[in-house]
Amino acid sequence: MLIDTHCHLDAAEFDGDRKDVIARAQAAGVGAIVIPAVSRDNFHAVKDLAWSFPGGYYALGIHPIAVPDAREEDLQNLAEMAEVALEDERFLGIGEIGLDFFLPDLKEEAMRDKQGRFFDAQLKLAQKLSLPVIVHVRRSQDEVLKFLRRREGVRGIAHAFNGSFQQAEQFIEQGFVLGFGGAMTFERALQIRRLAESLPLESLVLETDAPDIPPSWLGKPGGERPRNEPGELARIGREMAQLRGLDLGELARATGQNARRVLPRLAGTQHPAI
């Protein structure tokens, strides 16, 4: 069984055919889909969506791209919802959180500071509740690591990892696994493909980040930006399996075990999809 450890299934891009998207994913062998929140506005949406189909799970957090419009009381609301959600078997952890130093507006000093405050507050919450985190690390791997080292015991997934081997090793030392998805399928993405091929298998998980980061075969040169979806995970997994000289079944078992290890509430559920 394949596990999509990162899918924004609540996104507006799926409003027209969400049930069909889920059905295609299930037909492709995806048995579990983790839906991370991005802001207070969709905390309830990801919970409700996760409960709407077998194998749906969710995380709660404030994404760095949502930080500019976020308020301090949003952190309090997150804390309150997360504590209540501890009783919910579909709730897995705190995410999507992190730092983003790629977008110009987020690189300004004042916004970097605000991102850091919100990130650390959410790490502190995860530490307090003994929950894993799903972390956004775009152009920010070293800074994210600095925050993680201050919060002993916090573990999780470094989503859409595209850093160096040294950075990968440091995340692994912190108890993190690394998420790989559509970016790995591009032949020109040499660094990401080398990481997917060479890092310890026990440190890797699969993800789509749908509707974002579409794999190479969805590309339409000169056309509209293609929509990714969780049903592509099998072919993404097959790409990683080929890089590592494995068959898809072996890779699915290994990455599934890794996902359950780093998201312990996923491992503990009694849902038949798991």
Q: What does this protein look like?
A:
The chain is an alpha/beta fold and 274 residues long. It has one domain: Alpha-Beta Barrel (TIM Barrel), CATH 3.20.20. The protein contains 11 helices and 8 strands. It has helices at 18-27, 43-50, 72-85, 104-107, 109-129, 141-149, 165-173, 190-198, 233-244, 248-262, 264-268; strands spanning 2-4, 30-36, 56-60, 91-98, 133-136, 156-159, 176-180, 204-206. Strands 1-2-3-4-5-6-7-8 form an 8-stranded parallel β-sheet. Strand 7 (176-180), helix 8 and strand 8 form a beta-alpha-beta unit. Helix 3 packs parallel to helix 5 and helix 9 (233-244) crosses helix 10. The longest helix has 21 residues, at 109-129.
**What would the average pLDDT be, to the nearest integer?**
95
> What is the CATH homology-level superfamily?
Metal-dependent hydrolases
| Strand residues, percent | 5-15%
Count every beta strand, where a strand is a DSSP E run of 2 or more residues: 8
**Cα end-to-end separation:** 8 Å
Q: What class would the helix/strand composition place it in?
A: alpha/beta
The shape is globular
Number of domains: 1
Quaternary status of these chains? single chain
CATH topology name, in short, is: TIM Barrel
- Give the CATH level 1 class: Alpha Beta
CATH-derived architecture: Alpha-Beta Barrel
Uncertain runs: 270-274
Radius of gyration: 17 Å
Q: In sequence order, what are the helices and strands, one letter per element?
A: EHEHEHEHHEHEHEHEHHH
What's the helix count? 11
